[in-house]
Amino acid sequence: MASEDDDIMREFLLESRDNLSQLDQDFVTLEQNPRDHAVLSRIFRCIHTIKGTCGFLNLPSLERLTHSGETQLSRLRDGEILLDTHATSALLAMVDAVRRVLASLERGTGEGGEDFAPIIAELSKIGQAVPKPASEPAAPESGASLRPPPSLRPVPAEPAPAAVEAPAEAAPRALNVGDSTVRVDVALLDRVMNLVGELVLARNQILQYGAKSQDPGLVAASQRLNLLTTELQAGVMKTRMQPIGNVWNRFPRVVRDVAKACGKKVNLELEGNETELDRSIIEAIWEPLIHAVRNAIDHGIEAPERRRAAGKPAAGRVLLRAYHEGGQVNIEVSDDGAGINTAKVRARSVERGLVSAERAARMNEREVAHLIFLPGFSTADSVTTVSGRGVGMDVVKTNIEEIGGTVDIVSRPGFGTTLKIKIPLTLAIIPALIVTSGGERFAIPQVNLLELVRIERTSSRRSIETLHGVPLYRLRGNLLPLVFLNEALELPGPGAGVDAVNIVVLQADDRQFGIVVDGISDTEEIVVKPLGKELKALNVFAGATIMGDGRVALILDVLGLAHRTGVVSATRERAALEPASPEQTPGEARERLVVFRVGSSSRMAMPLEKVARIEEIAPERVERAAGRDVVQYRGAILPLVWLEQELLGEPPLLSAEPLVVIVCAERGRSVGLVVEEILDVVEEVVNVQGHGSERGVLGLATLQGRVTELLDVHAVFCRHDPGSFTRKEAAA
Amino acid sequence: MTRVKQLCSFVLGDLLFGVEVMKVQEVLRYQAMTCVPLASDMVRGLINLRGQIVTAIDVRARFGLPRLSDAREPMNVVLSAGDGVVSLLVDEIGDVLEVRESDFERPPETLPAVFRDVVVGVYKLEHRLLLALDVERVVAPLHGASAVGDAA
Question: Which of B46, B57, B84 sits opposite A552 (nearest CB)?
Fold first, then answer.
């Protein structure tokens, strides 16, 4: 608790110090142009912020001081009085006094016990004398007039040791704001980041040579370089990271104001303060979050009477939660309000012509909830004041998607609504799939990637069908529109020797589509570089990156490509076209599962969200350490679990065939599950039946019409990664 | 006393061009390029300039000149244009020439429009004429909405 307060205090001191340094300049500007409203407002805001925070931090005398300053500043701002030399001096004296208090706080000696009565008295005299006409801006030699007259300077000036107030027993805890942190120009950080990006590429090149070389010295050196670069990259990335708390801090105020304006009572809860994200992303999420919170209060939370009638506490609850998961940041905005009134949303969408009536009738609850993200749902006079929420939700969605994130909404009538936002940790370095088409390489950001499908040439003629010239592929019963990348980009087609068709299944907006590429190479961490403005207008490329061989590869903008090729229509009905299979009953959640075979006959499945990657690993790469099988994998050691042995008790048979390994990650730790083969990825409603009798099995379910065992990933994980187990237990 | 300006010269077909030497970041021999699908003909590709992605502009295409024969590799003149960096692909690099303001003349009206668009003027050198190029205007057609039109 104490340390939390310290953190708030440190934040306050840092912020105030910066604001005050700006103030001096502002006063100078103001003396020359006393009517500069923008500057006056800025000064007012600064003092106002300090005063506001004093309340939180229990600093009564600083609060009194800034309050009297604020009063005068607001009069100045509102034009009631004009700034003259006397006013400037009095205000500057106040600023100096504020500085002394801050310095004292920083030393850990409380507010310093100084008496501010003379300054406050001086402040209250502002404007009582006849204001000077504006045509005579005070004192051209502004430098001199800026110094407060000596009489104004408080008598016990200088370091103000304030031993009076400091408790004798506790040695003052210095917060050392200045010593432990350095403020760095963001441009410099960006430059360092760029250089690290270059280093990553150079490292990749060296690794490629090192892999070919027999020289043990070079191999060892390149491995060391590899590790160091990875650490350096992580370190530099961290310098760009800021805790989301910096954004959270501003919400109590927003919530209070909005709640007051709507006549509602709202308690705000903030979780995951320390979750860190890239600076650029922090800036980008502020606006959409404000929107979302405003919506939650305005349209989610009911009025106190209605809440009481519904048996809920009069004060609503808004929860902002942030946490890391799978290399992404999740942010949730939840309220315990009435939830989305889907009937009204449905009716309203039809009325506004966003969807056709029959389509609306066919939609399930979740799809209806997503209608609020449609542009056009947000216009004024919308139904949302009474029921759903929707003002500007399309803006939220657009803003989040611009930074490569996704938005989802879950609502339970009567219990509230949760908006889930997933955003990447950083925009600078992203994982991407490298594909080739027409002899060129392209990178596809992994956030857009759903799955890869490979069809042998012999059967591809049958599986790719055309409908009025539009190529389609039946992916587990759903029609997947296809785009041939060669054709879309006007590149030469593949040679005759191609033996298979590769489909990269992508998500764009709410639609899935597949792009057919000549070849699929690998996934890589790529450094995103901007394209020159002469190429911005193309809309098909999100940027470029430099590959290990030093050549440039373009990064596909999946959404742009989708729009260009027309697989995602720009019309408003796009959300309604979400592939929903007819047998799906509304309200039931479909899950995506990986189906695989263990041993010779066991058919098993696990949730796709638990799967980090699926790898083929050569058996000779398996090493034995600390009594378990491990492989070196992406710069770390990956413990292997032979599911056959684990679940069936059969010893693993080592053959020369590559091992199929499902890499699962949980809380930054990974385990590789060795299976016989991957059968499919399915999306079905899962009804678990019975309890698993064997260890590691959750139960049985029918998937694709066949009985399938569900793997208890967590149990397997806990058994094989004691570290994560204990931590998990402790957290629970 | 007439003012002297330094221009970096290069050759394109039988024409001699010059750009302000301060705008030239560096001169490189031919670099492997990544082509940009759907881009205008003027964009020959992207090169990796020590980690910076630079668009290579085919100046011949800009002026409607035939492509350089495959046997000859163009040179890169890397220039700072506006807030970005572009590379102009030219046939040959010449010397840095000192030109006198007194030798300057506005481009003749009879010069084809593609040249008049991008040429600030003509310097009368002793043996030949030098066309002074405005870099911003060379890449200008790629910036506006017209770039989309070109691409489509």
Answer: B46
> Residue A550 carries which DSSP code?
S
Work out the minimum CA distance from B51 to partner chain A, whole angstroms: 6
Nearest residue on chain B to A201, alpha-carbon basis: B51
Top mean pLDDT of A178-192, A218-232, A366-380 is at A218-232
* Residues in chain A within 8 Å Cβ distance of B59: none
Query: Which CATH number describes the domain made up of A186-239?
Result: 1.10.287
* Number of domains making up chain B: 1
Distance CA A3, CA A409 (A): 35
Residues 191-250, chain A: which have Cβ within 8 Å of B? 194-195, 197-198, 201
**Lowest mean per-residue pLDDT among A54-58, A152-156, A325-329:** A152-156
Indicate the helix (H) or strand (E) that contains B5.
strand B4-12
In the prediction, which pLDDT does A166 show? 38
Which CATH architecture fits A590-731? Beta Barrel (2.40)
Residue A272's pLDDT band (boundaries 50, 70, 90)?
Answer: confident
Assigned token pair, A617 = 């690993």
Domain boundaries, chain A: 2-180, 186-239, 243-424, 430-577, 590-731
Query: Which among B34, B80, B89 is the top mutation candidate for probing chain A, defined by the most A β-carbons within 10 Å of its own β-carbon?
Result: B34
3-state SS track over A175-210:
CCHHHHCCCCCHHHHHHHHHHHHHHHHHHHHHHHHH
Within 13 A of A615's CA, how many CA atoms are on the CB side? 22
**Among A440, A534, A546, beta carbon nearest to B147:** A534
Q: Which of A422, A423, A421, A418 is nearest to A295 (CA)?
A: A418
CA distance B90 to chain A (A): 19
Residues A77 and A44 sit within 8 Å (Cβ to Cβ): yes
**B19: domain CATH number?**
2.40.50.180
* Yes or no, beta carbons of A551 and B32 under 8 Å apart: yes
Mutate to test the interface with B, among A535, A545, A547, A565 (most CBs of B within 10 A): A535
User: Comparing C-alpha atoms, which of B53, B47, B68, B35 is closest to residue A491?
Assistant: B35
Q: What is the domain extent for residue B107?
A: 4-147
DSSP A252-319: HHHHHHHHHHHT--EEEEEE-TT-EEEHHHHHHHHHHHHHHHHHIIIIISPPHHHHHHTTS-SSEEEE
Looking at the complex, does the CB of residue B6 fall below 8 Å from at least one CB of chain A? no
Do A455 and A482 touch, CB atoms closer than 8 A?
A: no
Å from B34 to nearest chain A CA? 6
Return d(Cα B38, Cα B152) in angstroms, integer.
7
A430-577 classified as CATH 3.10.620.30 = no
Going by C-alpha positions, the residue among A234, A205, A244, A431 that lies closest to residue A331 is: A244
CATH fold group of domain A2-180: Four Helix Bundle (Hemerythrin (Met), subunit A) (1.20.120)
Which member of A438, A532, A546 has the closest CB to residue B86? A532
User: Is the whole-model pTM more than 0.80?
Assistant: no
Q: Which two tokens stand for residue A198?
A: 């270059």
Report DSSP state, residue A297.
Answer: I
Closest CA to A93 of A122, A114, A130: A122
Q: What is the structure's pLDDT at A435? A: 94
Q: Of the spans A35-39, A86-90, A99-103, A237-241, which averages the highest pLDDT?
A: A99-103
Shortest Cα–Cα distance, A719 to chain B (Å): 45
| CB atoms closer than 10 angstroms to residue A461 | 10
Chain-centroid distance of CA A710 in Å reads 31
A593 in Cβ contact with A682 (< 8 Å): yes
Neighboring chain B residues of A539 at a CB cutoff of 8 Å: 148
